[in-house]
Amino acid sequence: MLSKTKFLLPVLAGALLLQSCDKKDEFYTTADGLTYKIYEKNDKGEYENKGKVSADDTTGAKVGQVVTMQMSYKNAEDSVLFDSRTQNQPIMIPVMEPTFKGSLEHALMMMSAGDSGVFKVNADSLFAKTFNQPLPPFIKPGSQLTFFIKAEKIQSRDEAIADQQKMFEEQMKEAAVRAEKQVKVDDQKIQEYIKNQNMAGLQKTESGVYYKVNTPGKGPQAAAGDQVSVHYKLSSLDGKEMESSYNNPMTGGEPFTFTLGQGQVIRGWDEAIQKLNEGSKATLIVPSPLAYGEQDRGPEMPANSILRFDIELVKVNKQ
């Protein structure tokens, strides 16, 4: 998300390649000590070194604007520490006043939309004055980090926020399409599981959660907005138990309490538990888009995991 945080970037692996021609392909250094090469497209659509940028040049990004970019950076050993391309989307960084001479903020202010650049920034100053963090052990004191930046857009903050919202909406639509396809894939796997386990009497919710009431409850039926308390055992379809409220040391073995239908739990729970009465014991088989979807939650629960819950609806507090 776009925020006032300057450069809090995760450490990821990857590589960012910049195309350029060999004409005058050399580094320059500003009076403040920032070493750089900046490339722009020529009439042939090829990148070429712009050469030395005048200290009076005002064509670059300005304080208060937002640069949408692809960025990677390497340490002195040429190891890639971050690459935005691994996130499958560009990053947005507000342009701030430079925090030190030869800073990364200064680098952004030298670039125009469409430019690509390579910048060498003092690592000690960057972490101390921009990141506000101690120098990590994999970066040598006194060394430089090399940044590779492709400035895709330079906008006002309002324009960038509008763009970000549009991008978020597009991502949500794409995710919904993938989820719709994944539900069908998961449904086939669930049906095979049910057959192999000789399970009978399961029903299916509108969205695709399979459930079976093993012991009917005699209390009130749960509804959206009710506060409910649920005991559960979570397992994968291969039978491995991953979590249980009965022996959870964090809760002292107490049932999990939440408000139903408010998005406080996975969608499969919000939907299926409304089919149950207080006191019911049931089995839920939740397709991945109604559980944690494309999230990778570790080796026991990779992306697109189908989950089985054996639950007990302990209490329904009607609201």
Protein architecture, described:
By secondary structure, the protein is an alpha+beta fold. The chain has two domains: 28-161, Chitinase A, domain 3; 178-317, Roll (Chitinase A, domain 3), CATH 3.10.50. It is 19% helix and 29% strand. The protein contains four helices and 15 strands. The chain has helices at 104-108, 123-131, 157-196, 267-272; strands at residues 28-29, 35-41, 47-49, 66-74, 80-83, 91-94, 116-122, 144-155, 203-204, 210-215, 227-236, 241-244, 256-259, 281-286, 307-317. The strands form two sheets. Strands 1, 2, 3, 4, 5, 6, 7 and 8 form an eight-stranded antiparallel sheet that branches. Strands 9, 10, 11, 12, 13, 14 and 15 form a seven-stranded antiparallel sheet that branches. The longest helix is centred in the middle third of the chain and has 40 residues, at 157-196. Mean pLDDT is 89; it is low at 1-23.
Essential attributes:
Peptidyl-prolyl cis-trans isomerase; FKBP2/11; 29% strand; eight-stranded antiparallel sheet; PPIase_FKBP_dom; 2 domains; 4 helices; alpha+beta; seven-stranded antiparallel sheet; Chitinase A, domain 3; 319 residues; elongated
Q: How is this fold's topology laid out?
A:
Layout (H helix, E strand, L loop, with lengths): L27 E2 L5 E7 L5 E3 L16 E9 L5 E4 L7 E4 L9 H5 L7 E7 H9 L12 E12 L1 H40 L6 E2 L5 E6 L11 E10 L4 E4 L11 E4 L7 H6 L8 E6 L20 E11 L2
